[in-house]
Design goal:
Elements: H1 2-10, H2 22-31, E1 37-41, E2 54-58, H3 62-66, E3 75-76, E4 90-96, H4 105-115, E5 116-124, H5 136-141, H6 145-148, H7 155-162, E6 165-168, E7 171-172, H8 193-196, H9 200-205, H10 207-223, H11 225-230, E8 238-239, E9 243-247
Helix pairs in contact: 4-7
GO molecular function: S-adenosylmethionine-dependent methyltransferase activity
Pfam families: Methyltransf_11
Domain Methyltransferase type: 39-118
Length: 248
C-alpha cells in the first residue's frame, strides 16, 4: 500500500497545516446530496468529514489513524482497492485528495462505486495539455511534479469508470487546508519547512529537487522576479489549479 507507507513516514506533520477548508468542504458536502450514511475512503485525520451525517472512515496508515481527533468517525484499517463492506451498503462514498496515492486508482474507484449509491471524489486533472503550467510552482520551480503523477489515470478515464460528471474546485487565496496548491498567492509559505512537510509532493520528488526549488523561489522572492512574473495573481480571490470533483 504505497499511500500507507508514505503517510506512515510523513503523516506526523500533517495536522500542523492540513485542515478542512470550508469553501471546498461546502462543494463536497453539496455533492453528497441527501446521503445519510457516508464512507470516507483514504480518510486521513478526518478533514472534510461531514459532522451531520453517519460517517465511516477507511485509512490504511496507522500514523494517520492515530491522529484522528477524539469523537471522530470510526475508522477501519483497509485499502481503497479492497473495501471490507457489502454492495451498496452506504448512501455515498467520498475520497478527498487521496486517489493519487492508491496502488490501483481505478480499482479503488470501482470499489467505491460497488459499496455506495453515490460517489464523490476530489482529485486532479492531468488531461489538459500543458497542465503543469497552471501553477507557477510547478511551472517555474518544480518540473519534477509531472513525474509524481506519471501513470496516474486520466480524469476522463476515472470519470468514465464510475459514470461521473466533473466540476472544477477553485482554490481560495487564503485556503485553510495546506494542500500543495494552497499558497498560490502566498508564495513565501513554500519556504517554510513545516508547510512543505505536510505535502506529499516533496517526499516524492526528493530532497535535491526540493532544495533547488526552495532556493530558487527564495531568490526570486528576494529579487522581485516572482512578483514580476505573477503580479496578476494579487487580484484573484480564487484560482483554478486543476482540482476537480467527480460526482457519480
Amino acid at each position: 500500500m504505497p499511500g500507507a507507507r508514505l503517510y506512515d513516514a510523513i503523516g506526523g506533520a500533517y495536522t500542523a497545516t492540513r485542515r478542512t477548508e470550508p469553501r471546498i468542504a461546502a462543494q463536497i458536502w453539496d455533492a453528497l446530496g441527501d446521503a445519510r450514511t457516508v464512507l470516507n475512503v483514504g480518510a486521513g485525520t478526518g478533514s472534510y468529514e461531514p459532522a451531520d451525517r453517519d460517517v465511516t472512515a477507511v485509512e490504511p496508515s496507522a500514523v494517520m489513524r492515530g491522529q484522528r481527533p477524539a469523537g471522530s468517525a470510526p475508522c477501519v484499517a483497509a485499502a481503497a482497492e479492497s473495501l471490507p463492506f457489502g454492495d451498496r451498503c452506504f448512501d455515498a462514498a467520498m475520497a478527498v485528495s487521496t486517489v493519487h496515492h492508491w496502488r490501483d486508482p481505478m480499482a479503488g474507484l470501482r470499489e467505491m462505486r460497488r459499496v455506495a449509491r453515490r460517489v464523490v471524489v476530489l482529485t486532479f486533472d492531468t488531461d489538459e495539455p500543458g497542465w503543469q503550467d497552471r501553477f507557477w510552482l510547478t511551472r517555474d520551480y518544480l518540473p519534477e511534479f509531472a513525474t509524481v503523477l506519471a501513470g496516474f489515470p486520466s480524469l476522463a478515464a476515472m470519470a468514465g469508470a464510475i459514470g461521473a460528471r466533473v466540476e472544477p474546485v477553485p482554490v481560495p487565496w487564503d485556503c485553510a487546508d495546506g494542500l500543495f496548491e494552497a499558497y498560490w498567492r502566498r508564495p513565501a509559505a513554500y519556504l517554510e519547512d513545516h508547510v512543505r512537510r505536510a505535502m506529499s509532493v516533496w517526499a516524492k520528488v526528493g530532497p535535491e529537487a526540493e532544495r533547488r526549488a526552495v532556493r530558487n523561489l527564495g531568490d526570486d522572492l528576494g529579487s522581485g522576479r516572482w512578483a514580476e512574473r505573477n503580479g496578476d495573481l494579487a487580484d484573484l480571490d480564487a484560482a483554478d489549479l486543476g482540482l476537480r470533483l467527480l460526482m457519480a
